[in-house]
Amino acid sequence: MTDDRPLSRRDLLRLGLTAGAASLAGACGWQGGPLMPLLRGASRLNDAVGEKVLLGSHRLAPQYPVSARTPERYFPAYSITRPVPQLQEPESWALEVGGLVRKPMRLTLEMLQALPRVSYTVKHHCVEGWSAIATWTGAPVSSVAALVEPTAAAGYLRFDTFDRGYSNGWDLKSAMHPQTILAYAFNDRLLTADHGAPLRLYSPVKLGYKLTKYLTKVSFTSERPGGYWEDQGYPWLGGV
Amino acid sequence: MTEEPIEQGAPEPAEATPEPVSAEPAAEPVAAEVVEPEPIAAPEPPPPAAVPARRPLAKRHHWIVRTTHWLNTLLLAGMIMSGLQIYRAFPHFGLRGGPYYANHWDGKPFPRWATLGGWLAGGLNWHFALAWPFVLTGLLYLGYLLVSGEWRSLLFRPRDVPRAMQMQLYYLRLRKEHPPQGKHNALQKAAYSFIVVLGALSVLTGFAIYKPVQLHWLTAAFGGYELARYWHFWAVWIFVAFIIVHVALVFLVDPASLRAMITGWYRGRFPSHD
User: pLDDT of A183-218, one tens digit each?
Assistant: First the structure.
């Protein structure tokens, strides 16, 4: 450490080249290799901070005037299945709500539309970085929970779909947020197939990939459910 | 380039003949903060020609400063590269449908060699994992500056404005002599104060786009989600410009400072303390 020879310019050049080459070789789109468990651990820590510290149970997302809506042709719509998943017999569709609940139920679209109606014009945040504004209308998940009465053991919700295995897991706190709804309308009209008809989950407190479309089933669980993107490495909480 | 030492107030006469290694003192005190200081006020008598004296080796950087500096180098590289990976997913700024904000890289994803994470989820996981150590490293550094009083030789203050202008004139070769300085010259103080502000702005704009609903007051302070994301991206290019100039000046002006940032010990042309 106290070798007194000053670094020569050649030494410095060599050091710079080595460090530069090493960082380039180490990068190149590297996912993490042996450090992956560490990254997953950090992601879980961020989920915990996001849910327990940053998420306000009653903090509402800012709302926008209808005039601020993004033109619909610019509002992207993603699905796993192509072409867009559609029900063969839409009239026989109903949402199954079960799991750790006292009163499992099947809710038709009419029943859901008879529940308290929440409508808001909010900003949608996609994990990719884009944002867009639209109006969503539906029944709060908390109203559905009040009907089925989850048990004390229920700490999570799992949402299943008819979009080839796409599913999502949610924390109870985000699901019970007053702006988390089972949405049946987009910009004042019933959902179209590309936006998840007949029913999708919507909430301005989560990223788009948590807002499950083409719903078939909601289950209250005690174990943290995985999800289509989350199992591949996306942050589980996806809160904004 | 001449290597005359530059001291605050009392410039010493140039004495710059490098001496052979064998003339070194056998052992340097390692624990002492400063190696037996020679009185700065009194100019040294000119050394006998046969045994030219050497500037004393001085402790310039505390281990906390050195550790946080190099940790920050790695973390900042990781943050920038994973950020460029994230940018690939939507290389525009502004609400969907546009118009998009002015951006030289609009629609142009960065090459893979400049990215970290491999795909969007990988980039996000790196970015969100490195963000905490990045913040903690910054706080540790600032905490050290506050507690040690070292901030005094780094903080750019109004009185540094004319000194910075003199320093700029010198670099532009419009002034012959190097202006007197302490541990850092006024331009360095400006740069090292500014970069702390830039780091803080990067972290704040980062939180603003990480939790735009939960922290919407913060997001609103930057003009909303889309603008906050835009500023977050701009911070990258200011960091990159800073790094290029910073590294270039180390080699062009004061190569001895590289060793000082690695081992803490300095034998260069500038004072080690104010």
Answer: 999 999 999 999 999 999 999 999 999 999 999 999
Q: Give the DSSP letter string of A145-159.
A: HHHH-B-TT--EEEE
For residues B73 and B243, the answer to whether their CB atoms sit within 8 Å is no
Q: Is B146 part of any domain?
A: yes
CA A110 to chain centre: 26
Looking at residue A60, the DSSP 8-state letter turns out to be P
Measured between beta carbons, which residues in chain A are less than 8 angstroms from residue B22? none
CA angle (A107, A112, A114) in 5-degree steps: 125
**ipTM of this predicted complex?**
0.87
List the 183-212 stretch of A: residues with Cβ below 8 A of B: 204-205
Cis peptide before A71 (omega within 30 of 0): no
Residue contact A4–B57, C-beta within 8 A: yes
From chain A, the residues in CB contact with B86 under 8 A are 129
pTM: 0.85
Preceding peptide of B109 cis, ω within 30°: no
The listed CATH number (3.40.50.300, 3.40.50.720, 2.60.120.20, 3.90.420.10) that belongs to domain A32-232: 3.90.420.10
Going from N- to C-terminal start, the domains of chain A cover: 32-232
Mean pLDDT of A77-99: 94
Burial class of residue B176, CB neighbours in 10 A (0-12, 13-18, 19+): exposed
- Joined together, the tokens standing for residue A193 give 């197939």
What CA–CA distance (Å, rounded) separates B153 from A184? 62
